[in-house]
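Box S2. Input/output pair 1.
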Amino acid sequence: MDRLQKVIAQAGVTSRRKAETLITEGRVKVNGKTVTELGVKVSPDDKVEVDGIPLEREEPAYFLLYKPTGVISSVKDDKGRKVVTDFLPEEVEARVFPVGRLDYDTSGAIILTNDGEFANKLMHPKYEIDKEYIAKIDGIPTKKELNQLKRGMRLEDGKTAPAQVKMLSADGKKKTSIIRLTIHEGRNRQVRRMFEALGYNVLKLKRERYGNLDLRGMNSGDIRPLKPHEVKYLNQISIKK
């Protein structure tokens, strides 16, 4: 038996907090009866409706995809481009969706799940889940510029949080460098905009790590189920913070 708002959130309808609002507004029915109290618990056999639409509950599913460049972080694309769910094995019937997004021209680690509550926790800024990127840029930043990244960059949507930064290599002839950058925010094209604020263009970008998940043993386009301890760890992060 689980609380009604948790069941709604896990079905991917909305966050648990917004599910509570749906309940108190009288927009949720259990076995045909409107429920307005938050303490109600339901079993897998109970029929839940939100705004008259039956809730389809599935077993929670969690996957890690090594997203290639040129793939949309969505479940469908009106332009017919490849999307992240195209990489799921045929036998997977769960209706999963990406947690957050990676830009079309960025590769790397992205989580797919049908657990809406889990996804909302991972994307919430207060949980500060680390995301590690490897960027190839068209220049060689100075130590002063790297320190600017570490302290936080002033962007049009506000100053970024402090980042972990390390230059991995520099090519004096080609005037390019490889830099590891770890952030916990998830703003749109944030890493690229941070470098652009210093006057550098990102030539290639890959997200190497998301929380405790990395790409070791995976090739571009590979997908694997998350192990129970990996899901548990990510859930525990949100409990601790």
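Box S3. Input/output pair 2.
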Amino acid sequence: MSGVQIAIDRGGTFTDVHASIPGQEDIILKVLSVDPANYSDAPTEGVRRVLEIVTGKPHPRGQALNTAPIQRIRMGTTVGTNALLERKGARSALLVTRGFKDLLRIGNQSRPKIFDLKVAMPELLYQDVVEIDERVTLMGYTEDPYPKKIDAASDPELRVGLTGEIVRVIRTPDLAAAKESLQKLWDDGYRSLSIVFLHSYVYPDHEQRVGALAREIGFSVVESAALQPMIKVVPRGTSATADAYLTPIIKAYINSISANFEGGLAAEGLRCDFMQSNGGLVDFRSFSGLRSILSGPAGGVVGYAQTTWDADRKKAVIGMDYHYP
């Protein structure tokens, strides 16, 4: 038997498993997401039960599963969602342009309730901040309605950014000083970092240099411009710190699943994808914390859209996800 395709929704209470087998009826299973008395991982247990049904042979718990009959595994999970809600993410630090240590704490001063005298500031996801002495600025912004064209070749400090805009490199990061700061973070037990520099969406060079240095030490690194190359440093930085907070949890979870299969999830002939917050699937090696936050709910929305829309009647459907208290 080959060509088995398995779809898994790993929720907080139950894990649902749907398997499509060529020439046979589909298999639908439901197991507890947490049942340490019987198994260590719910998705693996679901796959194990499917393989027993498909092959007609016992697959003892605790033994690595042979993935030969499986063509594809698709999974949605609330691991990232729960880690964020319960504040059980990784201990992480933020590297930011010198002078902007409190940038994400201050935020954009949004006040949804303008007359509310008590403003609750959102909890920060990082535990420490290191200021990196670097700075670039954008050129060509002036009140003159007819500004002069800037020639980037006329000044060694000028660079052409990714958007075609001209930037001036005011200060290049001192990598020796940065390495010293990074080593201190490592010695303090940090293993995950986010790097958020001003204007990096147009000139990511400084983030890339410091990021490469941090990876050499062994850190899990999120460069804000690589993750989300957008203008507005506050939302870009917030996304980067969330990713640094959750990605180690996601990677550890994926590694724990992978260890239960012969050859891991990268075994020959096997494709494993995870549902992202946007409803799209991505290879398990590219699945990250930020894009996992709505993985489970997104799968539900896609499911409703695919199964309940009537092309003839063209009537909208409202889906509800009810959790027992």
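Caption for Box S3: The mean pLDDT is 91. Helices lie at 42-55, 79-85, 103-106, 175-187, 205-217, 224-227, 233-258, 295-307.
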